[in-house]
Amino acid sequence: MALVAENITVRAGSRLILDGVSLKLAPGELVFLLGPNGAGKTTLLRTLAGLIPASGRVLWKDSDLATMKPRERSRLMAYIPQGHVAHWPITAREVVAIGRFPHASSLSRLSPADADAVERALIAADAQHLADRIVTELSGGERARVMLARALAVEAPVLLADEPIAALDPEHQIGMAQLMRQLAHEGRAVLAVVHDLTLASRFGDRVVVLNGGRLVADGEPLRTLTPDLLQQVFGIKAEILASGSSKALVPWSLSSDAADRFG
């Protein structure tokens, strides 16, 4: 049982954004999607969520997601978009409750079970104290935790998150990474776009690297993020930090080519 993308290709006019990307996302795995700006990471996530038309197939349990009804697909996948934008002056709890809509008819109120799921999600995202505040008045980091809680409230087997740690302080960045790993190891399939190579190498089970719309690497973080790949894709050199039995990659300096570009 896995989410499988086969030969995903996306064009915007004459511009090729994704070029034949194939990958598998299995329950129990936290996979970080990496790549430089413009590599196609957000496009891939939105394609997997069924938000962008593409050639190729996305399968779950051998069923093509293109044939699923929208409500069925929304119960399968929870999606956290980039930016954590809030448009309506409603409470954070009401925002999180939107995550339960795939489980209810359009005319029904939230059930006690739905309300319990909302509270569990708020607690898991460390957002319970924000529940009664107006979401448009929250900081970017606070909204990020509310949007995570909304996704968790879906209780979907697949979680797709686009830069979920971008607006968070260091405490909540680490907390978010730990939570995503916990969710994965409890049985969800989790794919998250990040730019932080240290957190990706510290907490990820796998990393998938895009560059120029193509998948260029896929595997265990420290084996995959080699010096050659870091130089070619990111223009950097890195060091390995060890603490006890844990290791993480720390970006350290620009490669010679990148240093020339920056003067």
Helices and strands in order, then pairings?
Elements: E1 3-12, E2 15-25, E3 30-34, H1 41-48, E4 55-60, E5 63-64, H2 70-76, E6 77-80, H3 92-97, H4 112-124, H5 140-154, E7 158-162, H6 170-185, E8 189-193, H7 197-203, E9 206-211, E10 214-219, H8 221-224, H9 227-234, E11 236-243, E12 246-254, H10 256-261
Parallel strand pairs: 3-8, 3-9, 6-7, 7-8
Antiparallel strand pairs: 1-2, 1-4, 4-5, 9-10, 11-12
Helix pairs in contact: 4-5
Structural summary, described in words:
By secondary structure, the chain is an alpha/beta fold. It folds into two domains: 3-225, P-loop containing nucleotide triphosphate hydrolases (Rossmann fold); 226-263, no CATH class. The chain has ten helices and twelve strands. It has helices spanning 41-48, 70-76, 92-97, 112-124, 140-154, 170-185, 197-203, 221-224, 227-234, 256-261; strands at residues 3-12, 15-25, 30-34, 55-60, 63-64, 77-80, 158-162, 189-193, 206-211, 214-219, 236-243, 246-254. The strands form three sheets. It has a six-stranded mixed β-sheet, sandwiched between helices. Helix 6 links the parallel strand 7 and strand 8. It starts with a strand and ends with a helix. The model has no long low-confidence stretch (mean pLDDT 92).
